[in-house]
């Protein structure tokens, strides 16, 4: 296998798959596979057992293997020399450990230097895209609530205030870090295809040609997911977590600029009153849509929240609320049933883990989230031994962006071969995404003076038909005891299916549009299946198990690359947190054709230089992504909410 450093000098005139590209599917068409080059994860795990935290292969002796036997026999001199040797070794080990720890802390401290825009706290922080929701989470922490308690309240609040982006009718992926036990877990509350999502359903969806409407709604997972998180990690009573949100729904909140923009765009299609469901809460007395700053009162949702707070998650899946929802679905001609709701369950387990550098570890949710692709991109980029200089303006930054775009292409190529983990045939691609060896091979294959290829098939992409829009929110929590939560929640499009329940105040998601409707895709819609998602909020911890970064974003497929860039620029590039969030962004994916876009305002000279390398970048003038992040800097906590959506952190 070529070394990672080989990528610096590598120059190619043809794509590597014409003579040795690192391809799991060597010698086959883009949609075919070959067992000949399949990654052996047993070999991979065995190799990882002899790798250091910096990812460099150790010798047997360095890895703790057998040392040569000495020739001193049993003499007393041997005992003395051996004792002295052991003492020296122990002292050396302690010194190295202390210096290593100091180096790690110095690195973390430098990452927060010169950050004048982030909010700084001493104990804990909560970050969301709405100030009032961040404050609610902070208040829960100050009352003795857990990190999960705070995340639940903040997430419920976002579902109210930014109902266009998330809510009870959607789902989420959550990563939880338990500092006391140094363990990480995930909760997959992703929506699930109803039992009626059969071949006839797929045909009708394709014929309709619309990504919204009642039959775009999958079984919501939000409520069950929050309940399950609280059952395992909650401290305060479940009902108490709802109280401030119910109060806000009844008294009213001020419409945000993002809400006004969403309503404006909906009215470009047709008047709000012509959409299915009840939209009166977003209308002024004269019938015009509400503007930023207008008061919005949501009594129906307040009543639903109260019922769930008293009766638990069963209220949503088998109780009166469930019946109200299904009555409306049937009236609109939908396929969702009470049995679909009652049979819904979350998935949970250990989070994905991947070493970054200097003992740092990335924690992310597994498929069908975007966590595996996030992990892959970070692994590829980490192979280049990036330093602060690689993120400073100049030739090094051009090279970093070039490598990042190429790593993203390869990541999205593999992503097209993944889906719900329970789908047959996806494990090989998931294994490749998790393999550090494979990431190094990809890194070594990326030329420095040109793109790898202009043909997407060389990146192992499969045909797919999916949507590219999205409405999503994110919550980060770092508690005083070191616990952390990163949760990304969504109803898919802005206002999901474009249907608001009049009886419950819930927005129906349109997550069925996240499935591919190409039957060759592993993300093809099937009953009981979960659609592929880009959501992948993550946590980074250091070698001592202390949280260094909690981050996540909204932005459809760009979530994956945006999260990766924030991790790389802060943890490896020592870029101040606010600068990493505020900086103009860049993205590459496969749809299946290669698509590369940059945020309006991105440095034009940088774009020109990337163009000379073969990149074909298109400007995006609308909101590119919305990032929420918390970073530890020595004994301080820096928190920053993306100004693109006007959020603000809270903490103490």
Automatic annotation (TrEMBL):
SUPFAM superfamilies: N-terminal nucleophile aminohydrolases (Ntn hydrolases)
Cellular component, GO annotation: plasma membrane
Lineage, broadest ranks: Eukaryota, Metazoa, Echinodermata, Eleutherozoa, Echinozoa
The organism of origin for this protein: Strongylocentrotus purpuratus (Purple sea urchin)
Keywords, in A-Z order: Membrane, Transmembrane, Transmembrane helix
BP term (GO), one: glutathione catabolic process
Extent of Basic and acidic residues compositional bias: 44-59
GO molecular function, one term: glutathione hydrolase activity
Ranges for region Disordered: 1-70
Record: residues binding L-glutamate: 190, 490-492, 514, 556
Listed InterPro entries: GGT_lsub (IPR043138), GGT_peptidase (IPR000101), GGT_ssub_C (IPR043137), Ntn_hydrolases_N (IPR029055)
Stated name of the protein: Uncharacterized protein
Transmembrane segment boundaries: 78-99
Residue positions of the active site: 472 (nucleophile)
NCBIfam families registered for this protein in UniProt: g_glut_trans (TIGR00066)
């Amino acid at each position: 296998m070529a070394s990672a450093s080989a990528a610096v000098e590598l120059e190619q005139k043809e794509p590597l798959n014409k003579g040795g590209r690192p391809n799991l599917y060597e010698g086959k068409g883009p949609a075919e596979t070959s067992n000949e080059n399949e990654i052996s994860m047993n070999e991979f795990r065995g190799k990882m057992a002899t790798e250091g935290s910096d990812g460099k292969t150790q010798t047997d002796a360095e890895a703790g293997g057998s040392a040569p036997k000495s020739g001193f026999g049993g003499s007393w001199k041997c005992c003395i020399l051996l004792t002295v040797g052991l003492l020296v070794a122990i002292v050396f080990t302690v010194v190295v450990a202390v210096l290593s720890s100091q180096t790690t802390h110095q690195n973390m401290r430098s990452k927060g230097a010169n950050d004048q825009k982030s909010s700084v706290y001493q104990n804990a922080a909560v970050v969301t895209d709405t100030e009032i929701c961040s404050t609610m989470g902070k208040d829960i922490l100050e009352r003795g609530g857990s990190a999960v308690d705070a995340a639940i309240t903040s997430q419920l609040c976002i579902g109210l205030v930014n109902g266009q982006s998330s809510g009870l009718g959607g789902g989420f992926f959550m990563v939880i870090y338990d500092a006391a036990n140094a363990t990480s877990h995930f909760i997959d509350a992703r929506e699930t295809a109803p039992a009626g999502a059969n071949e006839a359903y797929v045909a009708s969806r394709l014929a309709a040609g619309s990504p919204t409407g009642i039959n775009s709604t999958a079984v919501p997972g939000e409520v069950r997911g929050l309940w399950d998180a609280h059952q395992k990690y909650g401290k305060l009573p479940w009902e108490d977590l709802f109280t401030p949100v119910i109060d806000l729904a009844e008294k009213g909140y001020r419409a945000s600029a993002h809400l006004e923009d969403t309503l404006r765009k909906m009215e470009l299609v047709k008047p709000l009153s012509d959409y299915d469901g009840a939209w009166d809460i977003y209308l002024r007395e004269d019938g015009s849509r509400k503007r930023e700053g207008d008061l919005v009162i949501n009594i129906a949702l307040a009543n639903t929240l109260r019922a769930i707070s008293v009766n638990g998650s069963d209220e949503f899946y088998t109780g009166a609320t469930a019946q109200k929802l299904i009555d409306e679905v049937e009236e609109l001609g939908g396929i969702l049933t009470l049995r679909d709701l009652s049979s819904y369950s979350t998935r949970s387990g250990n989070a994905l883990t991947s070493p970054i550098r200097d003992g740092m570890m990335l924690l992310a949710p597994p498929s069908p989230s975007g966590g595996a692709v996030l992990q892959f991109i970070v692994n590829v980029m980490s192979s280049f031994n990036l330093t602060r200089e690689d993120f400073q303006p100049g030739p090094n930054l051009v090279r970093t962006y070039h490598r990042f775009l190429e790593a993203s292409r390869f990541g999205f190529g593999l992503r097209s071969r993944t889906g719900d983990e329970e789908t047959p045939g996806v494990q090989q691609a998931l294994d490749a995404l998790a393999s550090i060896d494979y990431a190094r091979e990809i890194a070594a294959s990326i030329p420095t003076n040109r793109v790898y290829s202009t043909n997407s098939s060389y990146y192992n992409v499969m045909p797919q038909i999916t949507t590219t829009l999205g409405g999503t929110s994110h919550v980060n929590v770092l508690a005083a005891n070191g616990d952390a939560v990163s949760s990304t929640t969504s109803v898919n499009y802005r206002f999901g299916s474009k249907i608001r329940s009049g009886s419950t105040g819930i927005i129906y998601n349109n997550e069925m549009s996240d499935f591919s409707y190409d039957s060759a895709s592993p993300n093809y819609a099937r009953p009981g299946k979960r659609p592929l998602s880009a959501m992948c909020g993550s946590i980074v911890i250091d070698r001592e198990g202390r949280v260094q970064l909690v981050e996540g974003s909204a932005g459809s497929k760009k979530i994956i690359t945006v999260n990766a860039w924030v991790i790389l620029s802060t943890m490896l590039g020592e870029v101040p947190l606010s600068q990493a969030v505020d900086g103009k962004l860049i993205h590459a994916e496969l749809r299946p054709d290669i698509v590369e876009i940059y945020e309006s305002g991105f440095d034009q000279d940088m774009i020109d230089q990337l163009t000379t390398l073969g990149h074909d970048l298109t400007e995006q003038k609308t909101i590119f992504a919305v990032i929420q992040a918390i970073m530890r800097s020595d004994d301080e906590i820096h928190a920053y909410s993306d100004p693109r959506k006007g959020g603000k952190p809270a903490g103490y």
